[in-house]
Amino acid sequence: MQGRGGVRVVASDRTAAIVGIHEYPDRRVDGTSAMQIKARSAARALEDAGLGWRDVDALYDAGETAPGMAGAVMAEYFNLHPRVVDGTGVGGSSYEFHAAHALAAIREKKARVALLTYGSTAKSDAGRAGTAAPRGDRPTPAANMETPWGLTLIGSYALVAARHMHQYGTTAEELAEIAVTTRYHAMRNPEAVRALEALHFRDIREITAADVVASRMIADPLRLLDCCMVSDGGGAVVIADAEVARDARRRPVWLLGSGEAVGYPENGRDITVTAGAQSGPIAFAQAGLRPEDMDIAMIYDSFTITVMAILEDLGFCAKGEGGAYVAGGRLRFDRPGGPALNTDGGGLSSNHPGMRGLFLLIEAVRQLRGDSTSQVPDARYAVAHGNGGQLGTRHAASTIILGRD
Amino acid sequence: MTPDIEAVRPLPRFPEPDTEPFYARCREHRLSYQTCRKCGAIVFYPRSHCTRCTSTELMWHDSEGRGTIYSVTIMRQHGHPAFRARLPMAVALVDVDEGFRLLAEIVTDDPFSVHIGQPVTVAWITEGEVTLPGFTPVAES
Ligand SMILES: [Zn+2]
Questions:
Q1: Chain A residues with beta carbon closer than 8 angstroms to that of B76
Q2: What is the pLDDT of residues A27-82, one digit of tens each?
Q3: Cβ-based neighbours of B86, under 8 Å, separated by 6 or more
Q4: I want to staple A390 with a disulfide (CB 3.0 to 4.6 A). Which of A156, A360, B127, B136 is the partner?
Q5: CB atoms < 10 A from the CB of B82, how many?
Q6: At what angle do helices A276-287 and A304-314 cross, to 10 degrees?
Q7: Mean pLDDT (chain A, rounded)
Q8: 3-state class of A81 per DSSP?
Q9: Alpha carbon of A290 to ligand 1 centroid (Å)
Q10: Which residues of chain A have a CB within 8 Å of the CB of B45?
Q11: What is the C-alpha to C-alpha distance for residues A293 and B5, in angstroms, rounded to an integer?
């Protein structure tokens, strides 16, 4: 994008930056609550920033531990008195929405230090309570139309994958390439390897497309290795204004652009197009950057098809050309020709306690600090794209563009 | 929950004023949709307002019950015992000829033959007091 007088306005906005991060190291907790994971992660992230609880004046919470009272319950638990409270809860994408809203609040000078936390004991809970989805107190029209058909979460994404294959000729091997790439990165991340062990993955090693295609079919056309893991876990992110960021312990990672969108069933809708087709261009335009400027692509990998469709919608390739785009290991951290994808190992092979969006921001920051276990040399720009809900029915998406000085 | 209740698929729950008239008509084996009296927009799933203009006056219509599979998955595993008993089970998005799309089970002895573009027709499924609009394949012309 060209600014006034032909000056490129790339990443000139230094309004708010991520200054503290923490990813809770365990993927299987025993006797630790989700609220404890949130608080311990917040403490570590504040230490990482060189800040304390008293510095926090904006609190962002998706309500995963206190539905209906998001923010208030956690403010009490943390003993905070924030001036900005935001309880946006849109599944796994919530944390990209939170980052976008924190950037806006800081720009408006309503806040200086924002705290985002996440905690989940999804794996432990599944062992106790079975796999039946909880049903809310009041029926909704959409639920009344859909729940009698028992469409599973995987089934919803499978509807998108089936349609993608039908419209564009995408193959199972092309989808598999995404799982191969994330596992390649996971095997270089000791915490991811420990996660795979704790969750009793069989045969923990790098995998091939043939391995993915040979794995058990769950909901045609998606197979076991097309699906993310279910773990416990959590983390925290601290976002601060420019003045605080200049004094932070580590190099600030600036929030350069954001976009938000939702997608839902509509008569005649093309379900291969995600909400990212709306949120992505808004975010890139605000940042004054293009997809090809990105060194790192942290894209919500609930399933392989999620990444394939979003890469297209963000403009890394044309719609329908994702299969050819990801081929040949293009998205590995040590290959040229494309951004490095999910260099922590992703939800497919490192960490997915249900709402993974926070980890997208965390690994993007690691890369732009130079701390990743699959480090891209001199990584300067990253995109973090959260996708929450169910792609085949209703979902929410937010795109965040990050950059360093 | 008792095993008896668990063996029944989750059913629509009422009161829910948007979908209650739809399911009342299903009991009469009428697959229904709405249009706006003012602008003619098709509204589906059922609502009490037009999703195109600001009208709140909608009309009900009966569909012929014929459509085409827009996308389909065959579920191989399920956490709910009622669905586990039906595996492998084809669930599809069906584009109905009158111009609306709905999610539905494709009732067939051969779920693996179900495919995108396949013509289907409504196949009513009765579960106690509730009648559900499933679909079943018809011969391709
Ligand atoms: Zn109207």
A1: 216-220
A2: 999 899 999 999 999 999 999 999 999 999 999 999 999 888 889 999 999 999 99
A3: none
A4: A156
A5: 17
A6: 50
A7: 94
A8: coil
A9: 39
A10: 141-142, 145
A11: 55
Residue B2 predicted with pLDDT over 60: no
For residue B8, give the chain A residue with the closest CA.
A148
Q: Determine the average pLDDT of the residues in B45-67.
A: 97
pLDDT exceeds cutoff 50 at A330: yes
**Partner residue facing A148 (CB), from B10, B14, B89:** B10
Residue whose token pair is 């979908």: B19
Rounded-to-integer distance, Cα A228 and Cα A346, Å: 8
List, in sequence order, every beta strand (DSSP E) within A132-263.
217-219, 222-223, 233-241, 253-263
Give the model confidence (pLDDT) of B69-107 as tens digits.
Answer: 999 999 999 999 999 999 999 999 999 999 999 999 999
| pLDDT score of B7 | 81
Using a CB-CB cut-off of 8 Å, the residues of chain A touching B70 are: 163, 271
Residue ranges with CB less than 5 Å from ion ligand 1: B 36, 38-39, 41, 50, 52-53, 55
pLDDT for position B6: 56
The one-letter amino acid code at B89 reads M
Rg of the Cα atoms in chain B = 16
Look at residue A12 in the predicted model and tell me its pLDDT: 55
Q: Cα–Cα distances in Å, from A231 out to A121, A340, B25, B80?
A: 7, 24, 44, 21
In order of A10, A43, A177, A279, A402, the CA distances from A252 in angstroms are: 17, 18, 33, 24, 10
- CATH code for A12-126+229-404? 3.40.47.10
Annotate B63-77 with b (16+ C-beta within 10 A) or e (fewer).
Answer: bebbbbbbbbbbbbb
**Centre of ligand 1 from the C-alpha of residue B22, in Å:** 19
Domain residue ranges in chain A? 12-126+229-404
Residue B141 has a pLDDT of 66
DSSP helix/strand/coil, A403: strand
Chain B residue whose CA is closest to A166: B116
CATH topology of domain B64-141: OB fold (Dihydrolipoamide Acetyltransferase, E2P) (2.40.50)
Closest alpha carbon to B98 in B131, B129, B137, B67 = B67
Where in chain B are the domains? 14-62, 64-141
List, for residues A346-392, the tens digit of each pLDDT value: 999 999 999 999 999 999 999 999 999 999 999 999 999 999 999 99
Is the pLDDT assigned to residue A3 strictly greater than 60? no
> Could you tell me how far CA A140 lies from the centroid of its own chain?
27
